[in-house]
Recover the amino acids of this structure.
């Protein structure tokens, strides 16, 4: 399956509002994570506008421990007959390989120095988001990716947040994704 220039390589996870796929960006020859928003979410024009607005704001976040936001797009839904009106809407993000903090903690406690290093990275990333007017509403170990380079927080636009104009939600959306 393809979504525009993105070749879908496999499903990574699914939740109430989206499915996350590992994909290849055929233009830049790199692996990316694609979060495809379910049609029921995208059916409302108000939600679509908000999705687009928030995607633009999130794309402005640049930080060493925030998963990079690459693209937002839409493509024909391959499950509908040709000319079907419902398009698939999706976010394209940096693909991170590694366990979530929750998966790592399930294996047992981590050394204090490692825990402190991850805590500092997470706090620094959240500080950057807060200074940009983005408020995190779902911080938990399942929403933090651990890589060889350290802890990464992954931001996506409004998906399950309450209906308020300034609400943003932190969700995991890269290599290891969990429904929450």
């Amino acid at each position: 399956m393809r979504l525009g220039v993105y070749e879908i390589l496999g499903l990574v996870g699914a939740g109430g509002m989206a499915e996350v796929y590992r994909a290849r960006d055929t233009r830049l020859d790199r692996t990316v994570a694609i979060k495809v928003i379910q049609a029921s979410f995208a059916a409302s024009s108000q939600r679509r506008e908000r999705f687009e607005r928030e995607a633009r704001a999130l794309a402005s976040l640049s930080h060493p421990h925030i998963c990079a936001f690459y693209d937002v797009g839409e493509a024909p839904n391959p499950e509908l007959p040709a000319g079907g009106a419902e398009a698939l809407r999706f976010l394209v993000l940096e693909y991170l390989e590694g366990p979530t903090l929750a998966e790592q903690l399930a294996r047992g406690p981590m050394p204090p120095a490692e825990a402190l290093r991850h805590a500092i990275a997470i706090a620094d990333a959240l500080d950057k988001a807060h200074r940009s007017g983005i408020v995190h509403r779902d911080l938990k170990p399942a929403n933090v990716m651990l890589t060889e380079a350290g802890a990464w927080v992954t931001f996506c636009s409004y998906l399950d947040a309450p209906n308020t104009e300034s609400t943003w939600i932190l969700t995991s959306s890269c290599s290891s994704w969990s429904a929450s």
